[in-house]
Write a structure and sequence with these properties.
Radius of gyration: 17 Å
Mean pLDDT: 83
Family: Belongs to the UPF0145 family.
Strand content: 35-45%
Distance between the termini: 43 Å
Order of helices and strands: HEEHHEE
Helix content: 25-40%
Number of helices: 3
Protein name: UPF0145 protein ABWK59_26680
CATH architecture of one domain: 2-Layer Sandwich
Structural class: alpha+beta
Strand order of the largest sheet: 1-3-4-2
Number of strands: 4
Length: about 120
């Protein structure tokens, strides 16, 4: 059984910024568009995990250590996205996306980005 805290992510119920991958939020109106916001992290690869991943790739199967590292990176990027949104006065991020790239062959760059906005419930 997979532990959702180790291999999952996303928002917690206590988050004060709603993050969605859609253009709008049902039951809400966009009062103000603030603009682009992002959260970025770059993680280096641990030598031990690289060796383990290399051996595992010969036999096939999930690379659990690398999966956990990527989940942690995505969650950290998401936390930074939310902080950036709050700092700019937003309470929502619309059209959120992740971008993952290799960073100079030493690590992985994870960027969460979207459009910060102020939303309010429809009366």
């Amino acid at each position: 059984m997979t532990n959702i805290d180790e291999y999952g992510g996303g928002q917690r119920p206590s988050d004060s910024v709603l993050v969605v991958t859609t253009n709008d939020v049902p039951g809400h109106r966009v009062e103000r568009v603030i603009g682009e916001v992002f959260g970025l992290t770059v993680r280096s690869r641990h030598l031990g995990s690289q060796i383990g991943a290399g051996l595992k790739s010969l036999m096939g199967g999930e690379l659990r250590g690398l999966t956990k590292t990527l989940v942690e990176s995505r969650n950290q990027a998401m936390e930074r996205l939310v902080e950036h949104t709050k700092a700019r006065g937003g309470n929502a991020v619309l059209m959120m996306r992740f971008d993952v790239t290799e960073a100079a062959d030493v690590g992985t760059e994870v960027c969460a980005y979207g459009t910060a906005a102020v939303i309010a419930p429809v009366d």
